[in-house]
User: Fold these one by one.
Assistant:
Number 1:
Amino acid sequence: MSKQTGLKVCVVGLGSMGMGVATSLLRGGFETIGCDVSEDAMTRFVASGGKAIGNPAEAARDADVVITVVVNAAQTEAVLFSAGAAAAMAKGGVVLSFATMGPDMARGLEERVEALGLGYIDAPISGGAGRAAAGELTIMGSGRPEAFDKVRPVLDAIAQKVYELGDRAGIGASFKIVNQLLAGVHIAAACEAITFAKALGLDIAKVYEVITASAGNSWMFENRVPHILEGDYAPRSAIDIFTKDLGIVSDIGRNLKFPLSIASTALQMFIMTSAAGMGRDDDASVARLLAQVTGLDLPEAPGTI
């Protein structure tokens, strides 16, 4: 356990974000148990100095904090209840739920977790794999103050900014939904802009240099366009993540009878890219779809035949 806090932490989900969270906790001195369906991911975590157990209930046994870094609400529910992680936790433990989901789902999970005598923090994250690995995430959290107090050392180890946005679940989820609307639109716009520049016959590396120093820049343009320039579509964040997240945005907008025309257009771009066979590739692959449709040649990774 952490000598500073006495907290034992279990991280379920050792993908690009979860691995960064788990290794940041190791650097912070916490006893950290990793859990994932991928044997390779668990092997890499063990090589980093952690412990890994494939069964969520066994991994969460007597844990003071369980962090779920999975894809969606359904996977979060499966880990906590179907697989038994919540029931295996130490008395008075706290679940930190990082998945993007609708606010109603977050409130439902909170109710079920609290019925077991545990705390629950609706804590979606932002920042990407690089910031996760550096322990510099942004957390949009909502939950009971006593739950935040208990996990404060954990939050300090994995995040640069922790926003406490309310005392019940669902508020954090709503903030993340707004973030994902913007993030998805900005990725789609960045991909459209750089392929449009290619169609204009411009040097797209020079376009990147100019735009990142100009008012048209966005965090997503600056972060994703290098993937396109390098022809590297290994998934840091996959197309299907935004197919899912913008789908949630769309569902909420429909229920509220709130028009989301720009977000809906971006969603269709991600759906088309997924349908073209690139769902598990990097979300900058929207640019590849546009290039295919318009007959453009984008850079290829070195060694590509």
Number 2:
Amino acid sequence: MKRILIVKLTSLGDMVFTQPLVADLQRAFPGVKIDWIADAYCADVPRWNPNIERVISAPLRGFKKKRSWAGLREIFRALRELRREKYDAVLDVHGVYKSAIVSFLARTRHRYGYPVEELGESGARFAYNHIFAPYIEADSSRQRMRRAVSRAFGFELSDEMDYGLVMPPDTPALADKGPYAMLFHATSSEEKKWPVADWISVGNAIAARGLRVLVPWGNEAERKEAETIAAGVPGAEVMPRLSITGVAQMTGKASLVVGMDTGFVHIADALRRPTVILFTTTSRHLYGVSAPGRAVSLGGHGDIPTRAAVLAAIDEVMGVQPPVASLH
């Protein structure tokens, strides 16, 4: 096995989940070169992994929004780049039409994909001539991907998930003003949110521990909510709008990251930062993380984390010992 293409186009969190595949494959096939194809908006994630040989990006989401000739030209450029190499195997670990089309267009005799019942779009099945074994119910989402590939190629998985991410060194100046915590309050939908009043309460508790509280945002609605949270926390700052890489660099130097089940919080975990992830409607079993003393996941499937549970989790990941109960 000399060269493998991983097809994972989106989204930010899923791109992070998939990174351990790179280390798995390089352990199994020493010297193998790994290429990756991704949507342009989140292609920075595989670019942070120095063990990936080539990252091919195409503005698929941007083209869907704007339908511009420039975007179409960029997609064709990416396809030409894709076909520049011949692959021993193409692994579609995304499982939708567009990832299947990319897999089908790649130069290879061996295209791997999920069984129909595990595909995001069942029609994607047309692209594959090798099918991964069905997933094991008890596995997390990222472990399912790893196990699918290891079973397909007959190698044993390491217990460690090696994400391999290395941030560019030119971190925004905001990181140099003293230790800080980041509160990732924003989510992709309203039902996934945690109440603003709870964010303010937790922000105050964090500030009382001596950390600056930074509140990031990505659009105008998130900025307004960030301003509301920051206004209720002494010394808190609404972060300037940064690129994906800029926010990830800040995340990589944070003393604490608390946030919803979103991509940047999973980046924090991958970078081994003290991390607390909050789940409301999504599955903690599938997407949660657990690293005793460093990363804690709370809630999920309608179980909304309480302020007290979040504060206890913050103490755990920051190494604060709970008070000893009195014997009297």
Number 3:
Amino acid sequence: MNGTGSAAPTIDVHAHLLLPEVEEAVAGHPGLAEARALDARRNGPAALAVNGPMVGKRIPELTDVAVRLAAMDAQGVDIQLVSPSPSHYHYWTDPQLATRVCRLANEGTAAHCAKAPDRLHGLGLVPLHQPDLAAELLDHALESGLRGVEISSHAPGRELSDPAYEPLWSRAQETGALLFLHPFGCTLDERLDQWYLSNTVGQPTENAVALSHLVFSGVLDRHPGLRLIAAHGGGYLPTHLGRSDHAWRARPDAHGCARRPSSYVRQLYFDSLVHDPGVLRELIRVAGADRVLLGSDFPFDMGTDDPLAALRAAGLSGPDLQAVRGGNAAALLRKD
């Protein structure tokens, strides 16, 4: 079924779905209007005018399993790791509504994947803005049959280095849950409200900031077994780690982790969605071919319609190509 002539499956770890039941649950709440106003300010009117029709055209791929599977076949993808659209995070909700949103997302994703269990695996949601609930709702996602959860780069007023997340990291490590780090929005706000800079610059920036918080704060020292996948190739961080290492050596205030920052990329996973074969080769050089996974951002316009072609363009060796194409993800998804 895969497009490589190999028996091993081709696995895309960065694919999304929309869950109407989540949006129905938050409809009419005052916080939703405020969140949408913030989103509009961050993205700007031109981006919003494009986003609506773009998503609208992709509703079948985002909701209908048969359409998803047909698209996967056309791409040569055997298996997808499916996560809710980051627009479902709703990090403004109170504890009761946050719990409902996450439970609906977990159950809805599980139901979607259950229609093709040999080809679809799912990730749920936890409420980063309600850290006291995060570990409990991670358990709910796992009990629903999902492989872990998707999280953003931060929650309002909290970075991923916040001690309040220690129970989440502990539980994720204990259970072996996958954590998919996928930003939504960028705190640079109106500085990026033209030319879709909110995404093209904002998403890689958010990835780099979030990963730096995990590294420099010692989260990865305390929880070395975390299985965290960073979307968009980890953003700007993997290719600019020399500056982080220099700061760690030169400044005592940058010495919150036990080792040089660049060493921690070997504890993380990264998807391949970097839109540049040279950058992908550098990511593999820095992180290792065993730490990079195929990702497409299916089916959005900032993804790739042909993830295998994007991977082949990097000119990798045969073993490295096969590892990124699916071998690494197969090992992560394998049930003990």
